């Protein structure tokens, strides 16, 4: 059921409630493969309220935080409500009233009114006000319980008390950035089930312990999905109704290729899943044999095939993959899941370790790309980024914009990279560049940092490592000629390029069907970028998720791309695609594709080509 774009047709996959208690739920395929294991529910740890009192002068700001948390909670619940339609009617009937009750409590309810007054009259923080009020309401409800726990009236009170506490917890979670999750208590081979996983949560997953992942929220090209693919953990995200009736210890199947989660699988389904696991293992072993073979087309053109690195835990996978270097090291991992910003020395040690273990293969280090869905608590704690996101974080102070605003942060990272660059070939990559002024400003800072280090007697690589830019907005692609005159290389980030070109949030389930790298607009922008790079004689690669899908490989080659960087598990599959084609055939395919206006027709052409 998997399509070449990694998406699944909702209509084709039946969501069934079988005669047994088997439940099959349709989600988005985020990382291929099959996992079978006991459910491990990733429950948020109780949010820690570190600030209880506020100053009188801060009541307005605190009330504004509270209102923002209400809005965010409403948005989350409305999203869940909107997705119920894909569930069987029985399940819809169970869940809808609950969500309605939650939504009502976020309206002009006692909880909201009284929490607001607590902030203003008692000068307590928004999270304290919410917790105190939710507990007060729950106590009042339970205190009014006249009869035993089996009495229907008592049960109803208990339910209402649970509901008010639950909505209180959601508000506090949205107010406080919940602490990091730990999965160390999960049994070996468990399947992690959660409402949502942030990228920083996914970064804590140990693939040796967690066999699979399924969540209610999330999209296929968000950073959570990217990290799960990097770890090679079969995953299905965006699965409505998942948490309903899913208990710790239950057996669950996660079919990350088809995007289906099966709860309480029948014996026949379980047997088929076991066969699928064996076949994936065999497939991986076969692909593993490609490791030492070059990424060369049938007519002898050598391509550069590198790996993306999100987390240091991937280093052995990269070594096994046969990648010829790291084409994109996302440095965000160094800043995640910690309370403080890493020092220059800490960063230098981490980068140097990676460069050294690549033993002469190049490493492209991308400087910090904060923003959008990449939340980094340490930056909030250090006051570098605001606690409340911008009204539109994807269009705000992302990537290079933040670094140019906070030179101390940027200079420390550049110095750390320059330090590591004496250990092996390194390139520096700038995220979210939209104009030449940014590249010029960066180059000035880069030279200044290098000169200061040289003056301090530090050994400097000469020449300085190349400075490249990510092409990930339509503006950057359309101005590729101008940027090519300033940059030493390009890396095309098709994830953000698709998001910004199509105005579709890459992690947003509701519009996931519109997120399509086969859209003719995206293909033209890639082609324009590749042509501009050729005109200016600078290297260009693709390092977004499009590079990891082997059915796109011939098309990217036809568009003029000769360098790809993918998650490590995808390297052998992409290498196989490169080794099975000729440049001429790729160009003919691309010529055909570029005449299409319908992305579905493009996909058909790609599928036919692959046969
Ligand atoms: C991209 O946008 O395609 C990219 C590679 O960067 P990231 O996924 O980290 O935003
Ligand atoms: Mg990006």
Judged by helices, strands and strand pairing, the structural class is: alpha/beta
Shape category: globular
User: What's the Cα radius of gyration?
Assistant: 25 Å
In total, the number of strands is: 16
The first-to-last residue Cα distance is: 16 Å
What small molecules accompany the polymer chains?
phosphoenolpyruvate, magnesium ion
Largest sheet: 8 strands, mixed
**Helix amount, in percent?**
40-55%
Q: Give the percentage of residues in beta strands.
A: 5-15%
Low-confidence stretches: 1-19
If strands are numbered along the chain, what order do they take across the biggest sheet? 1-8-7-3-4-5-6-2
Total helices: the number is 22
Q: What is the mean pLDDT?
A: 88
Overview of this protein structure:
Helices cover 44% and strands 12% of the residues. With 611 residues, it is an alpha/beta fold. An eight-stranded mixed sheet has the order 1-8-7-3-4-5-6-2. An eight-stranded parallel sheet has the order 15-14-13-12-11-10-9-16. Helix 2 packs across helix 5, helix 3 packs across helix 4 and helix 4 runs antiparallel to helix 5. The chain is globular. The chain starts with 22 loop residues before the first strand and ends with a helix. The N terminus is likely disordered. The protein binds phosphoenolpyruvate and magnesium ion.
Provide the fold topology:
Blueprint: E1 23-26, E2 28-31, E3 34-41, H1 59-82, H2 89-105, H3 110-122, H4 126-143, H5 152-176, E4 190-194, H6 199-202, E5 210-215, H7 223-231, E6 235-237, E7 251-255, E8 260-263, H8 267-288, E9 304-309, H9 315-321, E10 326-330, H10 344-357, E11 363-366, H11 377-381, H12 400-405, H13 407-420, E12 426-430, H14 436-455, E13 467-471, H15 474-478, H16 480-484, E14 489-492, H17 494-502, H18 520-535, E15 540-542, H19 553-558, E16 563-566, H20 571-579, H21 583-593, H22 599-610
Helix pairs in contact: 1-2, 1-5, 2-5, 3-4, 4-5, 10-13, 13-14
Bound molecules: phosphoenolpyruvate and magnesium ion.
């Amino acid at each position: 059921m998997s399509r070449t774009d990694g998406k699944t047709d909702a209509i084709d996959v039946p969501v069934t409630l079988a005669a047994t208690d088997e439940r099959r739920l349709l989600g988005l395929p985020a990382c291929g493969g099959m996992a079978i294991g006991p459910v491990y529910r990733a429950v948020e740890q109780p949010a820690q309220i570190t600030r209880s009192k506020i100053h009188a002068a801060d009541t307005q700001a605190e009330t504004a935080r509270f209102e923002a948390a209400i809005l965010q909670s409403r948005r989350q619940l409305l999203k869940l409500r909107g997705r119920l339609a894909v569930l069987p009617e029985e399940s819809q009937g169970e869940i809808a009233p609950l969500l309605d009750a939650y939504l009502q409590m976020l309206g002009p309810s006692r909880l909201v009114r009284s929490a607001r007054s607590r902030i203003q009259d008692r000068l307590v923080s928004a999270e304290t006000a919410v917790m105190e009020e939710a507990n007060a309401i729950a106590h009042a409800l339970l205190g009014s319980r006249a009869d035993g726990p089996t009495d229907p009236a008592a049960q109803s009170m208990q339910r209402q008390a649970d509901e008010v506490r639950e909505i209180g917890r959601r508000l506090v979670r949205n107010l406080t950035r919940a602490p990091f999750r730990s999965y160390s208590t999960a049994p070996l081979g468990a399947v992690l089930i959660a409402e949502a996983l942030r990228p920083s949560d996914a970064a804590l997953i140990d693939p040796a312990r967690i066999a699979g992942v399924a969540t209610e929220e999330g999209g296929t090209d968000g950073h959570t999905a990217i990290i799960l693919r990097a770890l090679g953990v079969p995953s299905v995200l965006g699965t409505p109704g998942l948490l309903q009736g899913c208990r710790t210890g239950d057996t669950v199947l996660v079919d990350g290729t088809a995007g289906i989660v099966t709860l309480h699988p029948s014996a026949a389904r379980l047997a088929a899943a076991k066969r699928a696991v064996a076949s994936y293992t065999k497939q991986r072993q076969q692909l593993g044999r490609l490791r030492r073979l070059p990424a060369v087309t049938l007519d002898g053109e050598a391509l550069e095939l590198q790996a993306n690195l999100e987390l240091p835990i991937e280093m052995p996978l990269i070594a096994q993959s046969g990648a010829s270097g790291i084409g994109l090291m996302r440095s965000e991992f160094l800043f995640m899941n910690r309370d403080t910003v890493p020092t220059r020395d800490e960063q230098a040690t981490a980068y140097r370790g990676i460069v050294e273990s690549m033993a002469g293969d190049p490493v492209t280090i991308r400087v910090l790309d904060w923003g959008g869905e990449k939340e980094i608590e340490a930056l909030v704690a250090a006051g570098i980024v605001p606690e409340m996101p911008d009204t539109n974080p994807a269009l705000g102070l992302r990537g290079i914009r933040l670094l140019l605003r906070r030179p101390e942060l940027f200079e420390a990272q550049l110095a750390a990279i320059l330090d590591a660059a004496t250990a092996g070939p390194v390139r520096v990559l700038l995220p979210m560049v939209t104009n030449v002024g940014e590249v010029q400003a960066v180059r000035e800072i880069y030279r200044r940092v290098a000169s200061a280090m040289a003056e301090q007697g530090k050994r400097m690589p000469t020449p300085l490592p190349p400075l490249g830019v990510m092409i990930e907005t339509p503006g950057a692609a359309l101005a590729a000629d101008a940027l090519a005159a300033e940059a030493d290389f390009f890396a095309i980030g098709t994830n953000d390029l698709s998001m910004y070109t199509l105005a579709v949030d890459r992690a947003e389930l509701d519009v996931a069907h519109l997120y399509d790298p086969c859209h003719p607009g995206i293909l033209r922008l890639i082609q324009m970028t590749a042509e501009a790079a050729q005109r200016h004689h600078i290297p260009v690669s693709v390092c977004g998720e499009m590079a990891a899908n082997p059915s796109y490989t011939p098309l990217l080659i036809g568009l003029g791309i000769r360098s790809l960087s993918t998650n490590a598990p995808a390297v052998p599959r992409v290498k196989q695609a490169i080794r099975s084609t000729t440049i001429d055939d790729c160009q003919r395919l691309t010529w055909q594709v570029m005449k299409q206006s319908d992305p579905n027709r493009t996909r058909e052409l790609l599928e036919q080509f692959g046969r």
